[in-house]
Amino acid sequence: MSIALLDGPPAAHGMEGFAEHRQRLGSLPPVTQLIDAIERSNLRGKGGAGFPVATKWRTVASQRSGTPVVLANGGEGEPLSRKDRVLMEQRPHLVIDGALVAAAAVGADDIVLYVGADHTGAMQAMHRAVIERSAAERARLRLVSAPVRYISGEETAAIHFINDGIALPMSIPPRPFERGVDGRPTLVQNVETLAHVALIARFGDEWYRSLGVGTASGTTLVTVGGAVPQTMLVEIPQGASVADAVNAAGGITSDSDAVLLGGYFGGWVESGTAWGLSLDADTLRQLGYSLGCGVIAVLPSGRCGVVETARILAYLAHESARQCGPCTFGLRAISAAAGRVAGLSPAPGDLEHIQRWAGLLAGRGACHHPDGAAGLLASALRVFAGEFQLHDHDRRCSVVNAAAVAS
Known about the structure:
Layout: H1 18-25, H2 34-41, H3 53-61, E1 69-74, H4 83-90, H5 92-106, E2 110-116, H6 120-132, H7 135-138, E3 141-146, H8 155-164, E4 186-190, H9 191-203, H10 205-210, E5 219-226, E6 232-237, H11 242-248, E7 258-261, E8 267-270, H12 271-274, H13 281-286, E9 295-298, H14 305-318, H15 325-342, H16 350-360, H17 369-383, H18 385-393, H19 402-406
Parallel strand pairs: 1-2, 1-4, 2-3, 5-9
Antiparallel strand pairs: 5-6, 7-8, 7-9
């Protein structure tokens, strides 16, 4: 039996209503030993970290400092990703089902559905889906509009916004599972993860494991963009290759030297290495890579990796929390220097400074925002080493019109 997250009515139909959803999949079964089933399924979080879901749930369920809360995180601030918003637009009841069974499993009585304010289709679908639920379920569901900021989807920023109206990351400890929404233990789970949970609750862990390739389990949603016919959301088996995902999106439209794997908090990979990579969290981690929030962006020919990296760094510097020195000064300085190198007008020592700062920034911030920027930069310095040298020393780019792109 093969059932995918986006099975059901075609996208042109709009969201799948509750009656259609229940007719297609049936009612949710009673929650019994679900955490054990999730552990056997080897389900990992789909929000970026890839943390084992069962471990996270057990930690929340074991807290004794209050009744837990479930936060379904659909903030999706990553500019290259569209998986969460499309899932909520088309299958909102699958997300709500997952949140309900998660609440039952950890003993929560309150569920917050956190949706990016600029994802209007997702917000409308989730609102309609809540209305379609029973009065008892509606009483437990709270829909919150997340501010349009890159960091709004970070779990402590989401909690901070729900509690105080400020979408900025908070210093930890305490961690969300200890004290989160309303000071209560909080399970923060990405909406795609919860949708997978809703299917595992119905069809079991053995079914979920059977969907993967090799030793990997289940499927994953991936946004494929760049040198493909059009940016496309695909669902592929865990353990399939990067090439499989790109081919599912129509294949490449031009030669490419590199792939951005994992989005803005991911890293650049040489295309020759990238195509064969297995999209399995454990395998990627062992090789030093991550699928992150489910993004594969193929760098088109005619686009310069140095320029693209500088553009992303400028965005990350602008979107930082500005709560500590590494973001306020370090990331801004790196972005400025990278921008000068990309624009073929480097100041003396810019490249050396960038290389040194890339190794110093990680782990020094109040949150993980500078870590993501440092990881992206380090991968760019490795993959585009020759191009960085050409930009800095010769003030020349091997890609036509690269300087114009940077300006």
